[in-house]
Amino acid sequence: MDIRFPYSPAEVAKVKCVQFGILSPDEIRQMSVVEIEHSETMLGGKPKTAGLSDPRLGTIDRKLKCETCTANMAECPGHFGHLELAKPMFHIGFMKIVLSVMRCVCFNCSKILVDEDDHKFKQAMRIKNPKSRLKKILDACKNKTKCEGGDEIDVQGQDTEEPKEMHTQISDSEQQELIEKLDIFRIRGRDKRGRTVLRIIGKFFPARIVSVDALRKYLEERIFPEIEKKPFAVLYVHTGTQRCENFPGISAVRSIYDAIPIGVRRNLEAVYFLHPGLQARLFFATFGRFFFTDGVYGKLRYVSRLDYLWEHVRRSEIEVPDFVYDHDEDLEHRPMMDYGLESDHPRVYDAPAVDSPVSTYSMRCIS
């Protein structure tokens, strides 16, 4: 026994198991003794506070004591601090697993692509090793072009044609009035650089009812004239957006983008993308530079939390629906959603983790 450490009267017990996992951001902050804010280690010959050698992390000087446990250099075990990243980051170690899971499920309905009665699927489910099981399920799904629910799969990972004919039974003028009543677009408030903010709520857009022509005409008549003469920023709220209900299609979005006047594009200085899903991030990372011209892609800023949004936008001047606050609170209890390891889809909140048998619904994130 090391005589440098005092005797402990605690009963010696056998270790039954060791479990490895990932600490959530909140757990890291709670366990951390100091937030590192400076890259410098020393200041005036002494450890700099909030630096890489902060005294709360432990001491390497025989003359000093640790400010956390008050022990000397020989007895202090050391304590860890944390860094607050400027933006949320994907854990590169999990990207391959996430993509494999996404390739096993239908993009539209989240169901496993292979029939659960298929012998290959049953064989895979009998495998205890999670990695081997996922690999077998992926092999069973890779040749599927249609899920068992009957939905066609977009093999290329994006819409290549115009969306199916919308069920529009109202005139263009009525569609424009509907857009106005739903309060999808609102020019109000400013960000902290004094720029006017155009707020867009994706969940409010009725893609099955409103045609592309009606939307383009609404923007040209009611939105563009108000923002084409001064710098502005866009706040796009992606919270709760459903691809089948709120997304008009890639071709439709490109058509609307091409209709934006040059003056409006030049005055657009920032796009705040609130609560982006994993597939939205992957799409923009892959096609954003080709899809959007005039440097618009470089102005895109992902915002995973409302607290981060208020660092850029004046909170008192921007109205955000209650469901956005509710979703933001859910994210605090489900931190792995920031890394794409859990779904933001309401149907899969109670789905098991990756290392459990694969269920009917996946951990797919809505794009």
UniProtKB/TrEMBL annotation:
GO terms for biological process: DNA-templated transcription. The keyword Magnesium applies. It is an enzyme of class 2 (transferase). Its EC number is 2.7.7.6. It is found in: Nucleus. It holds the Pfam family RNA_pol_Rpb1_1. It catalyses: RNA(n) + a ribonucleoside 5'-triphosphate = RNA(n+1) + diphosphate. Belongs to the RNA polymerase beta' chain family. This is DNA-directed RNA polymerase II subunit RPB1. The lineage of its organism: Eukaryota, Viridiplantae, Streptophyta, Embryophyta, Tracheophyta.
